[in-house]
Amino acid sequence: MKRPYRPLAKRQGIIFILSAPSGAGKTTLYNGLREIYPEIRLSVSWTTRARRRGEISGRDYRFISERRFAALKRRGEFAEWARVHDYYYGTPKRPLVRAVKAGEDIFLDIDVQGARKIKQAYPEAVAVFILPPSIAELKRRLSARGTDGKATIERRLANARGEMSEIIKYDYYVVNRELGAAIKSLSAIVEAERARTVRVRRWLIEPLRH
Q1: For residue 180, pLDDT beyond 80
Q2: Residue 162: which residues within 8 A CB-CB, separation 6 or more?
Q3: Strands, E, within 77-194: which ranges?
Q4: Overall number of domains in the chain
Q5: pLDDT, tens digit, for every residue of 191-206?
Q6: Residue 52 within any structural domain of the chain
Q7: Residue 118 confidence (pLDDT) above 70
Q8: Backbone angles phi, psi at 145, to 5 degrees
Q9: For residues 186 and 33, is the Cβ–Cβ distance under 8 A?
Q10: Phi, psi angle pair for 103, to nearest 5°
């Protein structure tokens, strides 16, 4: 049984950003990573798009009307928001503030526009871009989902090419060719970022003993 994660040092929480073209598999990767790090939460975004088959409000997204989204935006409730594929998406600000202050890590599943805004507001955030093995494989995965028509798939592929051109602005990238290997790469990023001394506030044990 995996023991609970208990760091030897007090540190600020880490905001991990996950971005990827639609269909690259970042949700599956996050779910796999949660089996290794159950203490890392996922920030649930708000969106105006319709709920897809199998999605649960409050777990995958919080599905709301454009009118309510606009009201939340006016009140400054979003750390970032963007219009993607004709729908609005927004990251709630309060969970991020609480996580960083409490020393808890949190994942954001957001697009390249949102990632840029989060990095501006939280420079210490860690941005990871998930790549498909190829555009051909991405097209196959999108078609296999059975949720989008041909025109929508072609639009998503065109957007994917633009999104992948932003990879140089990210801290890391992971190619999701084989799920187990991709999860292992993500796990290595988490371990490395948790071990950075710049995040330490104070040591809990002084001196450290074997």
Answers
A1: yes
A2: none
A3: 78-84, 87-92, 106-109, 126-131, 172-175
A4: 1
A5: 999 988 888 765 554 4
A6: yes
A7: yes
A8: -65, -35
A9: yes
A10: 75, 25
Q: Of 141 and 94, which is predicted with more confidence? A: 94
pLDDT of residue 65: 94
CA distances from 174 to 20, 53, 133, 163 (A): 10, 27, 10, 14
For residue 83, being part of any structural domain is answered with yes
Q: Please, how many CA atoms are within 13 Å of residue 191, restricted to the half-sphere of its CB?
A: 8
Task: Report the run of H or E that residue 113 belongs to, with start and end.
Answer: helix 112-121
> In the structure, what pLDDT confidence band is assigned to residue 152 with cuts at 50, 70 and 90?
confident
Range of the domain at 22: 11-200
- The two structure tokens encoding residue 206: 């002084």
Is residue 28 assigned to a domain? yes
Task: Report yes or no on 64 lying in a domain.
Answer: yes
Mean pLDDT (the chain, rounded): 86
Residue 158 structure tokens: 């065109």
Collect all residues with Cβ–Cβ distance below 8 Å to 82 and sequence separation of at least 6. 88, 89, 90, 110, 111, 113, 114, 117
Question: Domain holding 70: CATH number?
Answer: 3.40.50.300
| pTM for the model | 0.81
Say which residue, 21 or 10, is predicted with more confidence.
21
Predicted pLDDT at 208 = 45
Stated as kind and residue range, the H or E segment containing 145 is helix 135-145
The DSSP H or E segment spanning 179 is helix 179-194
- Region for 103 from its dihedrals, namely left if φ exceeds 0, alpha if ψ lies in -120 to 50, beta otherwise: left
